[in-house]
């Protein structure tokens, strides 16, 4: 009647918990829960756990806990499938063409870094690897040089590796997780022989990855050659006010290169100037990266977010 113990009970009671237990008594007298028994699951901040462990929290790196270890090669043997160079090429192309999560520029940067490692792996497999001590200068077919180049590409994009192994995943600067199967990262040790020269598989892969690029590059090379001739004949008028100084950091470890180009010059023209200034052989080509993104070669630098005074990354590749 006016007593606090006289409230109704049963299935229609507004007081949960059944008869004889008041809401206030339950709130006061609940025993303390042991650690880890609360409704909120304890977080798992171990960045080394496999992404397949069932935790969706694994797909974003906790702020302030960015573990980054040096890039190392991934070695593995296939148990359930016989891999050929042709199958690897096809699956790698399909993998990067079908990424819908994460940032596309990060996927593209990871792809560029892996291309460097793939070339070195093919050279080592075919006995063509050149080493820094061979007297021919640094070569990205040298596994050590290739690993350092790939590391510089990932570092420039602020991509971190919790274990140093790309097959165990990578993070971007926003904490997004990028999962890579091991057959995407490297060739298996028990790779099946490919009919004909193994170079064919590598060249086919590079052709697929850069489809349409060489045609445009050859077209721009012709334009650049005509531009050089006009400059040599004094017919080209260069407005100093239109020139912008640019510092480029080469991925092969060479010293930084300073060049000046016009504000409207394409990134491909910039790459040509850098290659000439660095005295790179004709067998090498350069791709320009800035803030973790491989820049479009047909557009000017300023139109792609570059800020004056910032250093660009010149990624050196074999043609």
UniProtKB/TrEMBL annotation:
UniProt-annotated stretches for the region Disordered: 1-73, 210-231
Domain called Ubiquitin-like: residue spans: 244-319
InterPro entries according to UniProt: DC-UbP/UBTD2_N (IPR032752), DC-UbP/UBTD2_N_sf (IPR038169), Ubiquitin-like_dom (IPR000626), Ubiquitin-like_domsf (IPR029071), UBTD1/2 (IPR039869)
Gene3D superfamilies: Phosphatidylinositol 3-kinase Catalytic Subunit, Chain A, domain 1 (3.10.20.90), Ub domain-containing protein, DC-UbP/UBTD2, N-terminal domain (1.20.225.20)
SUPFAM superfamilies found in the cross-reference section: Ubiquitin-like
Bias type Acidic residues, positions: 214-224
PANTHER family linked to this entry: UBIQUITIN DOMAIN CONTAINING 1 PROTEIN-RELATED
Protein name as it appears in the record: Ubiquitin-like domain-containing protein
Organism: Lasiosphaeria hispida
Lineage, highest ranks first: Eukaryota, Fungi, Dikarya, Ascomycota, Pezizomycotina
């Amino acid at each position: 009647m006016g007593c606090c113990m006289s409230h109704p009970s049963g299935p229609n009671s507004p007081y949960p918990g059944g008869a004889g237990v008041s809401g206030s008594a339950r709130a006061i007298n609940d025993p303390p829960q042991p650690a880890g028994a609360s409704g909120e699951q304890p977080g798992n901040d171990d960045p080394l756990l496999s992404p397949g462990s069932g935790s969706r929290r694994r797909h974003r790196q906790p702020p302030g806990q960015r573990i980054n270890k040096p890039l190392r090669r991934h070695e593995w043997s296939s148990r359930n499938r016989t891999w050929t160079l042709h199958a690897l090429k096809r699956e790698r192309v399909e993998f990067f063409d079908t990424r819908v999560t994460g940032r596309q520029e990060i996927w593209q940067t990871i792809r560029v870094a892996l291309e460097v490692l793939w070339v070195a792996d093919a050279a080592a497999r075919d006995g063509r690897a050149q080493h820094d001590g061979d007297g021919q200068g640094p070569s990205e077919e040298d596994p050590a040089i290739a690993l350092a180049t790939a590391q510089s590409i990932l570092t420039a994009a602020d991509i971190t590796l919790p274990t140093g192994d790309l097959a165990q995943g990578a993070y971007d600067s926003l904490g997004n997780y990028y999962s890579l199967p091991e057959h995407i990262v490297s060739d298996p040790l028990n790779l099946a022989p490919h009919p004909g020269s193994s170079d064919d598989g590598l060249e086919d892969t590079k052709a697929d990855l850069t489809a349409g690029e060489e045609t445009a590059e050859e077209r721009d090379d012709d334009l650049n050659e005509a531009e050089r001739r006009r400059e040599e004949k004094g017919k080209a008028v260069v407005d100093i006010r239109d020139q912008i100084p640019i510092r480029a950091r080469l991925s092969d470890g060479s010293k930084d290169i300073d060049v000046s180009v016009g504000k409207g010059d394409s990134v491909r023209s910039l790459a040509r100037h850098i290659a000439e200034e660095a005295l790179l052989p004709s067998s090498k080509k350069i791709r320009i990266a800035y803030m973790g993104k491989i820049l479009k070669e047909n557009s000017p630098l300023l139109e792609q977010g570059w800020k004056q005074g910032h250093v660009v990354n010149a990624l050196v590749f074999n043609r």
